[in-house]
Design brief:
single chain, 533 residues, alpha/beta, 3 domains, 7-stranded parallel sheet, 15 helices, 22 strands, globular, binds calcium ion
């Protein structure tokens, strides 16, 4: 595909008929004096992805994109001008009263049948896309020891278990020095618990604990939280097996010397590797996909190419009976009325409002609001403010009714939810990814315009570039190029279908993402709104 060069026809994209701004598509932007096919003449140089006024905008007048007011002109803006953030006053956030509740009833789409993938079926009914031994930790203190053990397990044990994809330590900064009884501490605790039970880990739970930490293993994983555990006599290798939980406790009297700890972890790991190694992929319906979608490093093309393609794919997944979750509270806050109206029931709409209200209060404690979300990179990429960013972000959710809401750290399978689900999370890429892991995803889709090498060790991350220029420069980091939509080489539907097929291939292990290929893994970052002591 050949991207459009400035020497070629000047191109702009208007998202809705009623919009009075459009964005410049051409690589490298367009110089002042450029004449568009419509006759519009650029008064300023406009960078790629930035907005141009399609008509004279009077001072105080509404600037519309996505048929939504993204701001009010601070002075007269003549047609053909560059419309940047300093020319716009941002609208106030919509209040949470008198919202439309479950008013939109989208036409039911025909079910999409016959699509399957090869996955690992778990005892709890969930399906994994990878077969990974995850070592849970209760506290950051043990991270170095777990790292050391994981290296040895990979070198010495893993080659004997060819059906196991990887061994990872679930490391984090929580566990000690925290107000563990504070009401909001439930968020990091259930996040860790539910990540431990992610479908990609096959229910083979083992824990490394220090011993004196606030987050004791029984608090992290109370009896009954692990679906299937067998009876084992493991006392002789320095573990406690209370309530069926395999715990290696470093402070146990049993351990004399560092190698004793490492031996215990390795022996425990070997028992679990044997069980994981016996698992085989089997053909399962596409309805077993649990996909988390998010964006990061967004630009003005995010909401034009990649996110709409993901939205189309979201609708395909929902039609196939799968579960898709969208998140990033500060990036949907400005579209709350669209979301409450799309809720399948009044209860779902109220749950959505509850999450927004909780987050408004959380931000207020820090004396900021949702406008603190936008980054210098977003603005450089043409996104003037959070309203414009949010409108482009929400489209990842497609057009299906919203069937449920998760609070941060909750797990979709435990709530019995299917279809399109709102999983409330901050928009921070790693925190959102960590909470979506807890929510039970077996695939993660990530769109980016500025570019980020983001990846997770726990589930495959499929990355979608918003622009051809990025896809070309980062050809071995981006999996799908949605920039072809702006180039006129593909439609939103084309890229959405391509993504859907790629998901089935990746979930089946037939294909790897670039992040998997290079083993690019970001840390787990827990959302802890509770006090640290
Ligand atoms: Ca994000």
């Amino acid at each position: 595909m050949t991207p459009v060069s400035p020497a070629q026809q000047p191109l702009s994209i208007k998202m809705h008929e009623a919009d009075n701004v459009a964005i410049v598509v051409n690589d490298g932007g367009l110089p002042a004096g450029t004449v568009f096919p419509s006759g519009l003449v650029l008064r300023d140089k406009v960078t790629q992805g930035h907005k141009v006024a399609l008509e004279d905008l009077p001072q105080g007048g509404t600037v519309r994109r996505y048929n939504v007011p993204i701001g009010y002109a601070v002075k007269d803006i003549p047609a053909g001008s560059w419309v940047h953030e300093r020319l716009l006053d941002m609208p106030d956030a919509r209040g949470l009263d008198n919202l439309p509740i479950a008013t939109v009833k989208p036409e039911p789409q025909p079910p999409l049948e016959g699509y399957t993938f090869e996955g690992y079926r778990n005892a709890d009914g969930s399906v994994g896309s990878r077969n990974i031994l995850a070592i849970t930790t209760t506290v950051q203190c043990v991270a170095g020891v777990v790292d050391f053990a994981v290296r040895r397990i990979k070198d010495e044990l893993l080659p004997r278990f060819p059906n196991v994809d990887d061994v990872i330590g679930l490391e984090h900064h929580y566990g000690c020095g925290v107000a563990i009884d504070a009401p909001d501490a439930i968020i990091p605790i259930r996040t860790l618990r539910n990540i431990t039970l992610n479908p990609n880990f096959g229910g083979e739970v083992m824990v490394v604990s220090l011993g004196c930490e606030k987050l004791q293993p029984e608090r992290l994983l109370p009896p009954g939280t692990i679906p299937i555990m067998d009876e084992r006599n493991v006392a002789d290798i320095g573990m406690t097996a209370d309530a069926g939980l395999d715990v290696v406790c470093l402070q146990s009297d049993h351990h004399v010397g560092f190698m004793s700890m490492i031996d215990s972890i390795m022996q425990t790991a070997e028992l679990h590797l044997e069980k994981l190694n016996a698992r085989r992929r089997e053909t399962v319906p596409a309805s077993e996909l649990v996909v988390g979608v998010q964006c990061g490093g967004s630009d003005a093309f995010s909401g034009v190419t990649a996110n709409p393609a993901v939205g189309f794919c979201t609708d395909l997944l929902v039609r196939a009976g799968a579960t898709v979750m969208f998140s990033e509270t500060t990036e949907v806050r400005d579209g709350i009325d669209q979301l409450t109206s799309r809720a399948s029931t009044p209860e779902v709409a109220q749950a959505m409002i509850r999450e927004m209200a909780w987050y408004d209060a959380y931000l207020e404690k820090g004396r900021v609001d949702r406008s603190a979300n936008t980054t210098p990179g977003n603005k450089k990429g043409g996104l003037s403010n959070i309203v414009e960013k949010a409108m482009g972000s929400i489209v990842k959710s497609g057009s299906s009714p919203i069937s449920g809401v998760l609070s941060p750290g909750e797990k979709v399978q435990l709530k019995g939810l299917k279809g399109l689900v709102y999983a409330a999370t901050p928009a921070s890429d790693f925190i959102c990814g960590t909470l979506q892991l807890a929510a039970g995803i077996n695939l993660h889709v990530f769109t980016t315009g500025r570019g980020t090498p983001y990846g997770l060790a726990e589930v495959p991350v499929l990355k979608v570039a918003t622009r051809t220029d990025l896809a070309r420069r980062w050809h071995d980091l981006m999996d799908i190029n949605a920039g072809r939509i702006a180039d006129g080489d593909a439609t939103i539907e084309d890229v959405g279908r391509e993504l859907f097929q790629f998901m089935l291939d990746v979930a089946s292990g037939r294909k790897k993402t670039w992040a998997e290929h290079w083993k690019l893994h970001n840390s787990l970052v827990l959302f802890n709104p509770a006090p640290v002591t």
